[in-house]
Amino acid sequence: PVVADQEETVCSDEAIGVTLNQSTTTSISVAYIIKDIDSNGLSATSVVTNAIVGNNYSSDGLKDDSYSNNSNNPVDVVYTIVPVSAQGVAGEEFTLTVTVNPAPKVTNQEIEVCSGEELGIDFGASTGINASTYNITALNLDAGLIVNSGGASEGVDFLPSDLSDDSFINETGAPVNVVYTVVPVSSAGCEGAPFTVTVTVNPAPVVADIEKTVNSGIPIGVDLVEDPSISSYIIDDINTNGLATGSNNSSNNDVILFDGISNDSYTNLSSSVVDVIYTIIPVSNFYCKGEAFTVT
After folding, report:
1. Which of 34, 72, 191, 294 has the fewest CB atoms within 10 Å around its CB?
2. Distance CA 113, CA 115 (A)
């Protein structure tokens, strides 16, 4: 029998799936002798037992072979094979060349953000051949987390930067996690081992608006919410609507505790009620800023 050389291209750790060619003459090949296997340094995929040099292989005797390519470049595995006819006549040897493309390898990622804050990171770069796209195969959110922005979801063909604008709202009072399971994919279409991106989403404080009526010239006596989960408050704005302020009043951008505006005072020399409006941002013990609220 005469069999033409064969070529096949696979990804690292993928079964080569080859059926050996039949003879191009009338002398049919019924078996094959593996004379040599040059793996060029590649080893068999874990838990896979590859073919070895030997006799009496069938045409599909190599299909389950697979190799791990941990380099950054394609590597050829070359089988030298002799076809054998039904009469036991050995033909000319031919070669099966299997090009094994490498797959990307990305380590697990961890990040900590505040509720509502964009992640601001890309999917991790491969330590070997580059990953051109990423497939999100699972997205697991702890109870109390909801997707806020970026459209985080399972899917394929995500670009490295598609992770950066994802954000989540933590509706609990404690840190909770979202875990992405991601498969990196090379430009040749080779999928690497899955890795995870674990995002710890810290809660941000929520404080309701406050209203109080006081007399001109006396301390307003307003305490903000005293809560162990709130470390401080930032005064984002004070609209005095033209009233004269006390000499020791708080100011814009002051970082205060819950009683930080209690001693503020305002003098109203008009004949009408005038509102002073504070816009204040609560800050948690995780340094997460909540939504601004007002004190009127």
Report:
1. 72
2. 7
CA distances from 184 to 132, 133, 151, 180, 194 (A): 8, 6, 19, 12, 7
Tell me the three state secondary structure of residue 131: coil
What does residue 71 show for φ and ψ, rounded to 5 degrees? -90, -175
Q: β-pairing, 94-101 with 6-11?
A: parallel
Per-residue pLDDT of the chain (296 residues; tens, 9 = 90+): 999 999 999 999 999 999 999 998 888 999 999 999 999 999 999 999 999 999 999 999 999 999 999 999 999 999 999 999 999 999 999 999 999 999 999 999 999 999 999 999 999 999 989 999 999 999 999 999 999 999 899 999 999 999 999 999 998 989 999 999 999 999 999 999 999 999 999 999 999 999 999 999 999 999 999 999 999 999 999 999 999 999 999 999 999 999 999 999 999 999 999 999 999 999 999 999 999 999 99
Q: Which residues contact 51 (CB under 8 A, 6 or more apart)?
A: 34, 37, 57, 61, 62, 65
The predicted model scores a pTM of 0.82
Distance CA(159)–CA(196), nearest Å, equals 16
